[in-house]
C-alpha cells in the first residue's frame, strides 16, 4: 500500500496508512487520507473526477485530489472543526454557487468520470439525458433501485406499486423546469465535514467529501441534506434560498427527491428504508 500511495502522490511515505479513515504521512510531513475502493472497481476514479468537478470557485471547499487509480484515492485531510451558524450560512451560499456551475445534461458524469459510477456500494449509471428532469429521474434514479429493492424483499408488491405510481406522475410532481445543476449527488450529513477553511477565517466551513457527482436537480442535494439531519440546516436553506431562490413548492417536493437515496439505502441495508420510501410515495398522492 505504501508503494501505491508513493506512486500516486510522487512522494515517499513516512508512515501509515493506518487508522480510520486510513491516513498516511508523506516525507514532507503532509498527512493524507487513503481510500481503498478495490471492492468497488472504478469507484476511486469516479470519486476523484467528482471531487475535481465540484471544486468550483466560490463553492464549498473540497479536499484536494493528490492521486487516484482504479482502486485507490489519495486526498488531503480535512482538519476537525465544529458546525457554527456562520459556517452554515456560508455553506448555503457556497452550495448554491456549486449548483449554479451547471452540467451538460441531467445524468451527465463529471469530465473524466465513468458512465458506470457508484453511490455507496451500489452501482449508479450516469447517462446524459436530453429530456425533462422528471423523465430522467424516474428512469435512471428511482426505477432501477425500486426493482433491486423489490427483488431483495425490501418492499412488498403493494409498496413497490406506490413508488411506481409516483414515477408515472413524475411530470406533474416535478415542479417548474430548471437547468441541470452540478450535484454532489450523495449529500447526506456524513459527507459534510465541518472544519477550518484554511484561509484564516475563524468562522470555519463545510467541506464536501465522497461525492457521487452528476448533473441533476438542485433540490435533490437539498433533500438529501434533510434526510438524516444536518446541524443548522434551517440556516443553510435560508442562505441558499436568499442567494439562489428556490421554486415555489420546493418543500412539498422533498419526498420526491428523497425517493432516490431511500431506495439506494433499501438496496444496501434492507426493509426499513423501503418502508420509508413507500411512506414518502404515499405523501406524494
Verbal overview:
This protein has one domain (78-283): Aminoglycoside 3'-phosphotransferase, Chain: A, domain 2 (Alpha-Beta Complex). 42% of the residues lie in helices and 16% in strands. It has helices at residues 2-9, 43-54, 85-100, 133-151, 157-168, 170-173, 218-227, 233-243, 254-269, 271-283; strands at 13-18, 23-26, 31-36, 65-68, 72-76, 116-119, 122-125, 181-183, 192-195, 205-208, 214-216. Strand 2 and strand 3 form a beta hairpin.
What is the element layout, followed by pairings?
Elements: H1 2-9, E1 13-18, E2 23-26, E3 31-36, H2 43-54, E4 65-68, E5 72-76, H3 85-100, E6 116-119, E7 122-125, H4 133-151, H5 157-168, H6 170-173, E8 181-183, E9 192-195, E10 205-208, E11 214-216, H7 218-227, H8 233-243, H9 254-269, H10 271-283
Antiparallel strand pairs: 1-2, 2-3, 3-5, 4-5, 6-7, 8-11, 9-10
- Structural class call reads alpha+beta
Rg is 19 Å
The secondary-structure element order is HEEEHEEHEEHHHEEEEHHHH
CATH architecture annotation name? Alpha-Beta Complex
Amino acid at each position: 500500500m505504501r508503494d501505491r500511495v508513493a506512486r500516486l502522490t510522487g512522494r515517499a511515505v513516512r508512515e501509515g496508512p493506518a487508522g480510520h479513515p486510513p491516513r498516511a504521512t508523506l516525507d514532507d510531513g503532509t498527512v493524507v487520507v487513503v481510500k481503498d475502493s478495490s471492492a468497488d472497481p472504478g469507484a476511486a476514479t469516479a470519486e476523484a473526477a467528482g471531487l475535481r468537478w465540484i471544486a468550483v470557485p466560490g463553492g464549498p471547499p473540497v479536499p484536494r485530489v493528490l492521486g487516484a487509480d482504479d482502486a485507490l484515492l489519495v486526498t488531503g485531510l480535512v482538519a476537525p472543526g465544529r458546525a457554527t451558524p456562520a459556517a452554515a450560512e456560508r455553506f448555503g451560499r457556497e452550495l448554491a454557487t456549486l449548483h449554479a456551475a451547471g452540467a451538460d445534461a441531467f445524468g451527465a458524469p463529471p469530465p473524466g468520470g465513468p458512465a458506470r459510477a457508484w453511490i455507496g456500494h451500489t452501482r449508479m449509471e450516469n447517462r446524459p439525458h436530453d429530456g425533462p428532469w422528471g423523465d430522467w429521474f424516474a428512469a435512471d434514479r428511482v426505477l432501477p433501485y425500486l426493482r433491486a429493492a423489490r427483488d431483495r424483499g425490501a418492499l412488498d408488491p403493494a409498496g413497490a406499486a406506490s413508488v411506481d405510481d409516483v414515477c408515472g406522475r413524475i411530470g406533474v410532481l416535478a415542479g417548474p423546469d430548471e437547468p441541470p445543476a452540478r450535484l454532489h449527488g450523495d449529500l447526506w450529513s456524513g459527507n459534510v465535514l465541518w472544519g477550518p477553511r484554511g484561509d484564516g477565517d475563524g468562522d470555519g466551513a463545510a467541506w464536501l467529501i465522497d461525492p457521487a457527482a452528476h448533473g441533476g436537480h438542485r433540490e435533490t442535494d437539498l433533500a438529501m441534506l434533510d434526510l438524516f439531519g444536518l446541524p443548522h440546516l434551517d440556516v443553510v436553506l435560508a442562505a441558499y434560498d436568499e442567494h439562489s431562490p428556490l421554486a415555489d413548492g420546493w418543500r412539498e417536493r422533498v419526498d420526491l427527491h428523497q425517493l432516490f437515496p431511500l431506495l439506494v439505502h433499501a438496496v444496501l441495508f434492507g426493509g426499513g428504508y423501503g418502508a420509508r420510501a413507500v411512506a414518502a410515495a404515499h405523501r406524494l398522492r
